[in-house]
């Protein structure tokens, strides 16, 4: 009986010892594992942080590049839209200008002695683009050589060549134009010719005693040498810029700024007898 008690006690003591050793070993292993894990974390964590930061930067770069690509596409589309709007604005301004010019032409009171043929300027020829212009009307429309042509602001010139559907007009800027005119304020007659200047023409053979002065208005005269062409009087030609004395022929020459802006002329009327 005592033997059994001693044996049981021994077994209990052994079991307690084994359990104590197991707990110690287990605790020691966990401590070791924690230490190892700490070492691993201390090594890997900085690398992991750098990898994360690098990945974030790469993502940001790709996002930036993607946004640039999107902005470029939007910029191209906006430029295209702006170009379309510019073209529409140009067309609008062109139509507006032509309508204004046409309305001003229609405001002229018709003279029973003339037939008014509306025309468009479709071309310009010669060394100086403003010396000769081409109209989209011709003999089929009743246009004849020598007919005067006017725009909304004043005299353009006269017809020098006629085809069936087009005609050429020599403008008052051409030195060969030679159109009889009158100084409105003084009644002095002279001969209008071009001056080889893009912006001025001149009136020759004014009387040496003329009272014409700067700012006076020059208008067409009804003097003509061609009985088949009826010359309209009173069409504004321009205004006097300056007057010079010509010693050779004992007369004065007036330099005229045309009333018509030949760089913008689009709509005209041909005056037919």
Structure commentary:
- The structure is a single chain.
- This protein has one helix and twelve strands, in the order αββββββββββββ.
- It is elongated.
- A hairpin with a 6-residue loop joins strand 1 and strand 2.
- The protein has a domain of 158 residues: Thrombin, subunit H.
- By secondary structure, the chain is α+β, with helices and mostly antiparallel strands.
- The chain is 38% helix and 28% strand.
- Strands 1-2-5-4-3-12 form a six-stranded antiparallel beta barrel. A six-stranded antiparallel beta barrel has the order 6-7-8-11-10-9.
- This is Cell shape-determining protein MreC.
- Involved in formation and maintenance of cell shape.
- It comes from Caloramator proteoclasticus DSM 10124.
- One of its GO terms (biological process) is regulation of cell shape.
- Keywords: Cell shape, Coiled coil.
Major sheet size, sense and barrel closure: 6 strands, antiparallel, barrel
The secondary structure category is: alpha+beta
Mean pLDDT over the full residue set: 78
Shape: elongated
Strand order of the largest sheet: 1-2-5-4-3-12
Q: Helix and strand layout, with pairings?
A:
Elements: H1 2-106, E1 115-125, E2 132-135, E3 148-150, E4 155-162, E5 167-171, E6 179-183, E7 189-194, E8 201-206, E9 217-220, E10 236-246, E11 251-258, E12 267-272
Antiparallel strand pairs: 1-2, 1-12, 2-5, 3-4, 3-12, 4-5, 6-7, 6-9, 7-8, 8-11, 9-10, 10-11
